TrEMBL record:
EC number per UniProt: 4.1.1.15
Pfam families: Pyridoxal_deC
GO CC term (a single one): cytosol
Protein's recorded name: Glutamate decarboxylase
One Gene Ontology molecular-function label: pyridoxal phosphate binding
Keywords: Decarboxylase, Lyase, Pyridoxal phosphate
Organism of derivation: Leucobacter insecticola
Swiss-Prot/TrEMBL catalytic activity: L-glutamate + H(+) = 4-aminobutanoate + CO2
One BP term from GO: L-glutamate catabolic process
Annotated TM spans: none
The keyword Acyltransferase is assigned to this record: no
Family assignment from sequence similarity: Belongs to the group II decarboxylase family.
Length: 454
């Protein structure tokens, strides 16, 4: 029984043109047949450029594509075989250390990762290990570490706490405290707190958490209790926006309490999926016993990573982006995305049924909800479905704990959503809202719509 077949369109006489989906075929296919099968399977995916849900790059320029094709065989871990790629990795994290105001980039330390998730795990592990060292030296219990963060953290922090047995202490967000802002923090931290996570660009809404205020609150707590609690900034998106669009905002290594910062190179860094970064302000914040030196690939370059082999080409692409754009180019690119976000937020808020949660002036991301009791005929899930019929992906989802009754819809503006495309999107959006507003009976209840996190 075969279930992937091309005949007659791609029929190739005397050779197999069919394959079983879930079992290895007994015989080979011609490469062009296998290509066409996989190509056609990928065709059925959504159109990435119309996906306004994801933060992750869906476009790079031709030179980047060429570079990618030339370097896709490089293995990042093999620093002895590819010493030049390893050197480029170091250039990149030093560029970031500098961009994030490290007082001395030669005293800093950093690494590339597969994305922010791995970068956050490494930041969390450094916190946990440092705390363990300190507690052991003091002869104290190390069995109950906790990490404090907002209830609107990205799922990677839940993973970190789950995988490494750290208690997750969530500070709930509310209408009054839309982000973690230091309010009430004294009720969440104690001697077992390994650190506090501050998010630059909350995934749910795109808002910045005020890292300076969080740090000030922790200073106050230290004065009262002696507890010296470090901050990791999860700057998955914002760490590549704030240095360019909000240069006066103090969220980075200008604050001494910020030990480490992570970002996704594949979000506003502008690289295709597969690269993230984490940098520690000073080498002493990355405990030496987490760093490995392996000799079996030759050499003994130190590494701190969850993976072993992984592609090196995205790291080269990151360097390409840094060289290609420079400070002025990144500023222009991020400003362009922000202009589109602010334009769309204003247009959507003027339509009537919606109220903005935020306006796209932090990172180029904004969310809105329905005006309470506006209608019982449709909701944001229906609107998301209607937009999907036109190819646009704009997810609706519930807010996190304590606000879970509030449904929001969110748009992430990436650099490849031009103002021209945004205007076309808004025309479709307006037409679908008009369709829903004209309903004279309620839409059927939408099937279960799971939350959507990227
Ligand atoms: C996207 C995101 C992550 C996870 O990043 P990946 O690069 O996809 O692993 C973590 N934190 C925040 C705030 C994010 O927006």
């Amino acid at each position: 029984m075969t279930n992937s077949e091309f005949t007659p369109v791609f029929d190739r006489n005397t050779r197999h043109t069919a394959a079983d989906r879930n079992r290895l075929g007994a015989e080979p296919l011609l490469p062009e047949t296998a290509y066409q099968l996989v190509h056609d399977a990928a065709l059925l995916d959504g159109n990435a450029r119309l996906n306004l849900a994801t933060f992750v790059s869906t476009w790079m320029d031709n030179d980047a594509d060429r570079l990618y094709a030339e370097t896709f065989d490089k293995n990042m871990i093999d620093k002895d075989e590819y010493p030049s790629t390893a050197a480029v990795e170091e250039h990149c994290w030093k560029i970031l250390a500098n961009l994030w105001s490290a007082p001395n980039i030669d005293a800093a330390i950093g690494t590339s990762t597969t994305g922010s998730s791995e970068a956050c795990m490494l930041g969390g592990l450094a916190f946990k290990r440092l705390w363990q060292h300190r507690r052991r030296a003091e002869g104290k219990d190390t069995s109950k570490p906790n990490l404090v963060m907002s209830s609107a953290v990205q799922v990677c922090w839940e993973k970190f706490c789950n995988y490494w047995d750290v208690e997750m202490r969530l500070v709930p967000i509310s209408e009054d405290h839309k982000v973690l802002d230091g309010h009430d923090l004294e009720n969440y931290v104690d001697e077992n707190t390994i650190g506090v996570v501050a998010i630059m660009g909350v995934t749910y809404t795109g808002m910045y958490e005020p890292v300076r205020e969080i740090a000030a609150k922790l200073d106050e707590i230290q004065q009262k209790t002696g507890l010296d609690i470090p901050i990791h900034v999860d700057g998955a998106s914002g760490a590549m926006i704030a240095p360019f669009l909000q240069p006066d905002l103090e969220w980075d290594f200008r604050l001494e309490r910020v030990h480490s910062i992570s970002t996704s190179g594949h979000k506003y860094g502008g690289v295709y999926p597969g690269v993230g970064w984490v940098v520690w302000r000073e080498e002493k914040w990355l405990p030496e016993d987490l760093v490995f030196r392996v000799s079996y690939l030759g050499g003994d370059m130190p590494t701190f990573a969850l993976n072993f082999s992984r592609p090196g080409s995205q790291v080269l692409l990151q360097y390409y982006m840094f060289l290609r754009l420079g400070f002025a180019g990144y500023t222009e690119m991020q400003q362009g995305a922000q202009d589109v976000a602010v334009f769309l937020a204003q247009q959507i808020s003027k339509l009537g049924p919606f109220q903005l949660w935020n306006d796209g002036t932090d990172i180029p991301v904004f969310a809105w909800s329905m005006i309470p009791n506006y209608t019982d005929k449709w909701d944001l899930y229906h609107l998301a479905d209607r937009l999907r019929t036109r190819g646009w992906i704009v997810p609706a989802y519930p807010m996190p704990a304590d606000l879970q009754d509030l449904t929001v819809q969110r748009i992430v503006v990436r650099r490849d959503l031009s103002l021209d495309m945004a205007e076309k999107f808004f025309a479709d959006f307006k037409a679908e809202v008009a369709y829903l507003k004209a309903l004279d009976a309620p839409m059927p209840t939408a099937p279960d719509h799971p939350g959507f996190h990227h």
